[in-house]
Design a protein that fits this description.
The protein has helices at 12-18, 44-48, 71-74, 81-101, 114-118, 157-166, 169-172, 184-189, 193-202; strands spanning 2-6, 23-28, 39-41, 56-59, 105-110, 125-128, 141-146. The chain is of the alpha/beta class and 206 residues long.
């Protein structure tokens, strides 16, 4: 399959598909931490206007202004609400463009106002946690799916959740409690390996 991972510079998801023999590429305005041979360093919207055929597109748009955790800054009546409105507009446009050029599309974000908008265009949203895929952590994440099945959980996820529930807060909420740094935003947004593997295993040959 020819797969495009939009708004990804880590290549975590891209590499999961590559490891399984697919022709996968990442795209981001930032340079990749992975292989530049598999990376388009450009605006994803521009890339989608090119006449290329994609079998699957997975999008990871910036969640900074759209995540509900940022309501005190970006919510209605807050000083940065204009940035949220623009982020939602751009992401909605990105979704529409992606489903126009590809039959199978997914969009990932944490709990975000974008899903309220996308539900007007498509069906329900799947919400997942890292512990569903073998990681002893919490980070509720939404997936908007166009012609794709919901991800099936890792076998034995209930036991992983049990360990997660008993783990110290600094371990189970590692992402939420991550200390401020230049890399904090980048590291908090990186896809968990178990979720990347599930996408590469389950969203092929649709």
């Amino acid at each position: 399959m020819k797969v495009l991972i939009g708004c990804e510079e880590s290549q975590k998801v891209c590499k999961a598909f590559r490891d399984r023999g697919h022709e996968a590429y990442s795209c981001d305005i930032q340079a990749t931490r992975g292989s530049p041979d598999w990376h388009f360093q450009q605006d994803i919207m521009t890339l989608l206007t090119h006449e290329q055929k994609w079998d699957l597109i997975i999008l990871h748009p910036d969640c900074t202004a759209m995540a509900v955790s940022g309501n005190r800054w970006y919510g209605k009546g807050m000083p940065l609400n204009g940035k949220r409105i623009e982020a939602v507009r751009w992401t909605r446009e990105l979704w529409i463009k992606a489903v126009q050029v590809c039959n199978f599309v997914a969009l990932e974000n944490p709990v975000s106002v974008i899903f309220t908008e996308l539900k007007k265009l498509m069906g329900d949203i799947q919400y997942i946690q890292p512990y569903h895929f073998g990681h002893k952590e919490y980070k509720k994440t939404g997936l908007a799916l166009h012609n794709l099945p919901e991800l099936k959980y890792f076998e034995g996820w209930e036991q992983v959740k049990m360990f997660t529930d008993l783990a110290p807060k600094h371990e189970s909420e590692r992402i939420w409690r991550m200390a401020p740094s230049e890399k904090r935003k980048r590291d908090r947004s990186e896809t968990y390996q178990g979720i990347a593997d599930a996408m590469a295993d389950q969203w092929v040959n649709q």
